[in-house]
Design goal:
Length: 110
């Protein structure tokens, strides 16, 4: 009879350890699920940031292209200014240059 009581005590001890380990495993599984959800959310944020960066790079390239075009036009206008023969033509080209400068200045601010 004493032997059976010892076996029951041992069985209860083993049962208690099994329950504790099962609870620990469930806790760890919940933590893993939470970490997976957090990782997924961070990946979504990362993808959104990458898309925003790609869009900004595209806008930057467009603006740089526009600025390069305007700079080429400005250079052409300055060259034309040197070839002008009368004040009326000079005044018109100067006005073109001023308008282009204003446009370029507003493009650089964007």
């Amino acid at each position: 009879m004493g032997n059976q009581i010892e076996l029951l005590v041992n069985l209860q001890t083993i049962d208690l350890q099994l329950r504790e380990r099962t609870d620990a495993i469930e806790t760890l599984q919940r933590e893993i699920a939470d970490l997976d959800a957090a990782l997924l959310a961070q990946r979504e944020v990362l993808n959104a940031c990458r898309a925003e960066r790609a869009e900004a790079e595209s806008r930057r390239r467009d603006i740089e292209g526009s600025l390069a075009d305007e700079e080429a036009k400005m250079k052409d206008r300055r060259m034309r200014l040197n070839r002008i023969r009368n004040e009326k033509e000079a005044s018109a080209v100067r006005r073109e240059i001023e308008v282009a400068k204003e446009g370029t200045a507003s493009s650089k601010k964007a």
